[in-house]
Amino acid sequence: MSAAPALKQTPLNGAHRRMGGRMVDFGGWDMPVQYPAGTVEEHLRTRTRAGLFDVSHMGEIDVRGPDAIAFINRLTSNDVTKLVDGQAQYSALTTPEGTVIDDLLVYRFGPERLLLVVNASTTEKDWEWVKSHHEGESVELRNVSADYCQLALQGPDALRILQTLTTTPLEEIKYYHFSEGEVDGVPAIISRTGYTGEDGFEVYAAAEKAEQLWDRILDVGKTGTPEGVLPCGLAARNTLRLEAGMSLYGHEINEETTLLEANLGWICKLNKGDFIGREPLARQKEEGVRQRLVGFEMTERGIARDDQEVLINGERVGRVTSGSPAPYLKKNIGMAYVPAEFANEGQQIQVDVRGRAVGAQIVKTPFYKREKKSGV
Amino acid sequence: MANVPEDLHYSKDHEWIRVEGDVGAIGITDYAQNSLGDVVYVELPKVGESFEAHESFGSVESVKAVSEIFTPVGGEIVEVNESLQDEPEKVNTDPYGDAWMIRIRMKNPGEVDSLLNAAEYEDFTKTEEE
Fold first, then answer.
1. Contact at CB, A2 and B130, closer than 8 angstroms
2. Cβ separation of A354 and B38 shorter than 8 Å?
3. Which of A169, A211, A241, B73 has the largest count of CB atoms under 10 Å?
4. pTM score, two decimals?
């Protein structure tokens, strides 16, 4: 099938096609779902060596001015005032009801300069939201999504590989911090963040440098060898984040579920001062949530898939938000919303897998946690 | 380029059938396994169950998707490849051999005549690509 002309492309579209990426429509973007190595191999290589992901489709919103921090603090749930220069924060844009417009990273470059990194499919919505909720604060807003490429190099070998291309001492960048430097001579933001549960980096640079960086990282990462870095598609990105218990917008979080229901109370700083959605969230925290996001693993043969119904004691009580085989754990896992009274480890549930009730059990998340080296 | 053996018959749902008297061995094609990606789960019926031609008799799952599998001919299941339960990856590595899925006693062996031959199936997959 050929791509509809309306699909958006990242600057690496040609590279993906050249390398045999299987292209799919992902929220209006023409993106590789996998490369010839296949999702399982891409997933495992990222866990054991390194994987390289094109995430240039993600959006970037530049916020500058004396009120930059106060403004974004009013629109997001985490506490922007706690950030220092060179630090990044996981947060959410919230509705007045405390549900989620998007999850995002807030980067602080200085007291008057932030960069918001948002999901691809929600970039336009977020941009309109941020613009329309500006209430006279002294800020300048720019949607700079098209200016940047973003490459995620993830896995235990990520640091070693990237270090060969930069003089920035990567070991000194702490988790959820970043540094402005050069990669292969290209000015870049080097951020120790990711969406795989591994150590790794996300590199932001000018869009026109995307192919140079992509090719060089694969080259110095010895792609094509059994221990080398593998280019990875969106399917591996999804299974990696699911094993790591991370939420995906449109699945675990959306405008119908609140941060507290999604177990994101830790990015919900109710005492930081007012922000959009604070009141209903504070009330919900007081009264308790009615439903809660849980992780589960299948105890019988079968694979749960997104949107399938969850049964407890024969009653349809919830829905799977993400379900998949977990290639590294070699289990079939998923996440689901269930009534709060059942949201306990060890609770037996069933998933309606195309008409068949298949047994599963609620387990602790994250499903996968890497062994951390000291100091990282 | 997908492998399309000459001695088999093919359906537009990407299954193959190898005729052995009044029994047909059925599996999915190389083209199908390649589009699916890594197969991690195969669900098959039980011996003794009956299916009409083009009816779904099970499913094949990759990491990212589920695909139903359809029998090209009607009949009764006489044998099921149980080894695919533990080694679903054989669907990727040997789709026409070790990864046969069911053997069906054909109710009407004439149904095979309405299926595609190798050349026709190859042409069909090319139009699917476009």
1. yes
2. no
3. B73
4. 0.94
Residues of chain B in contact with residue A2, where contact means CB-CB under 8 angstroms, are: 130
* Residues of chain B positioned with their CB less than 8 A from the CB of A41: 38
- Of the candidates B18, B119, B20, the residue with the CA atom closest to the CA atom of residue B8: B18
Give the nearest partner residue to A39 out of B37, B85, B130, using CB atoms.
Answer: B37
Q: Does domain A290-363 have CATH number 2.40.30.110?
A: yes
Shortest distance between the Cα of B97 and any Cα of chain A, in A, equals: 22
How far CA A98 is from CA of A73, A92, A254, A265, A294, in Å, comes to 15, 10, 10, 11, 19
**Could you tell me the residue ranges of all domains in chain B?**
9-111
Residue B1 — pLDDT band, cuts 50, 70, 90?
low
Of A98, A153, A102, nearest to A129 by C-alpha is A102
pLDDT tens digit string along A15-66? 999 999 999 999 899 999 999 999 999 999 999 999 999 999 999 999 999 9
Residues in chain B with CB shorter than 8 Å from the CB of A22 are 37
Classify strands B66-70 and B56-62 as parallel, antiparallel or unpaired. antiparallel
What residue ranges do the domains of chain A occupy?
Answer: 13-52+147-243, 290-363
Fold of A13-52+147-243: Gyrase A; domain 2 (3.30.1360)
Q: Which of B56, B57, B61, B64 to mutate to test the interface with A (most CBs of A within 10 A)?
A: B64
Query: In CATH terms, is domain B9-111 a member of 2.40.50.100?
Result: yes
